[in-house]
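Encode chain A's predicted structure.
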Amino acid sequence: VGFSGQALHALANAVTGDDKEVQALAAKAMEKAAMVTPLPSEVADTLADALTHGEREVRVSALVALGSAAGESELSTKVIDAIAEALEDSEEIVRYNACAAIARVASTRAMGR
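Encoded structure for chain A:
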């Protein structure tokens, strides 16, 4: 059982919305969604935007979601660049999750999907 494209888009938009509390909740939900549903490229791109604008917990959840998505979704250069930039984040937990996401991307590509 996965999430509809419409639901994924709504969650991604909430992650980058104005309400900080809603951002955090939507980002956590996106973590779970990415585990069971391939992310459309537009959704992954929106999550990448959250890596530069979101609060720490939102950035961490976005990285977890993008790392999960790497196994099932084709991530754009924009997304991979945003993950790479997160490797230089001021927060250690963000850098850790960026490393994990990059490792997942590299592993998936090395296995040829």
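The CA atoms of residues 5 and 80 lie 21 Å apart.
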